[in-house]
Amino acid sequence: MSEQILKNSLGNTELNVSKLGFGCALYRKGKRHWTLKRAGQVWNAALDAGINFFDTAYDYVDSEERIRSTIESRYEEFYIATKVGCTDTKSYLNESEHVWTRENLYRGIEGSLKRLNRSNVDIIQLHNATVEECQSGDLVLALEDIRREGMTKYIGASTELPDVATLLGWGVFDVMQIPYSALHREHENWITRAGEAGVGIIVRGGVAQGEYSVGRGKHNTWKKFHEAKLDELLDIDESPSSFVLRFTLSHPYVHTVIVGTTKLDHLRENLRTVRQGVLPEDLYLEAKRRLDSIGESPTLL
């Protein structure tokens, strides 16, 4: 894994992030293969390969504590993004009650910094707050105050339609984390608009959780891959998951794609895919045409 992967400027921020980021949601208690030792092995291998962007959240149970326990000595080698809005009512991934108040945002970032043993993080993101929740809780002002106090360098929002349109229009977020892949293209045009505005784009779901029966992807999602006959476009020995990741990376305003895995083999495959590069333009356009033909098209602006 010694060959380093390419990097992108994350919008108008000063962060130069690896095209492949690491999503830490899977690393939590309760499963045999989600051990602290496994986390250290995979995360250190990711860092060795040049991955320099890690995305976490308090909602990911003990992910932040595990980051500190395993790779705190390498903090200078990577950027870290976490999220606010979560509470202590967690029992499983993303199951906590979210409270959208200034007090809870401060409580969240202060707790994250303590768990990570850091004085600041590179990015904090609202963890899927709606427009109404942002407005009623005056959340943007709270984020700006947190940034002014030095607890974060940049502010962002993990979001999706319909909220992404309004949040983007406010012009206040440095980054946005948005779901996107060949099999979920509804945000494709919104990613373009956000990127053109200088917003750093972090994509989640960029491999649609991996091919059904191989990864964690859903049958109805991956059925689209075969309905669009994307199998015919695969390179020799290329997997469907690899093709979908290359499609995601081919979007000119996708700056980093966070992909989580607990397995070194999956990490190696993702790294090989990124090093292979984006799809050739004619192949990219043909894949879009085939997806359009089955109704898997971007939402119009």
Strand content: 15-25%
Mean pLDDT: 91
Strand tally is 10
Question: What would CATH call the class?
Answer: Alpha Beta
Please bin the fraction of helical residues: 25-40%
Q: Label the structural class.
A: alpha/beta
CATH architecture label: Alpha-Beta Barrel
CATH topology description? TIM Barrel
Overall geometry = globular
CATH H-level superfamily title: NADP-dependent oxidoreductase domain
Using only C-alpha atoms, the radius of gyration works out to: 18 Å
Q: Enumerate how many helices there are, as a single number.
A: 11
* Main pleated sheet: 8 strands, parallel, barrel
Order of helices and strands: EEEHEHEHEHHEHEHEHHEHH
End-to-end separation in angstroms reads 41 Å
Domain count: 1
Low-confidence stretches: none
Strand order of the largest sheet: 3-4-5-6-7-8-9-10
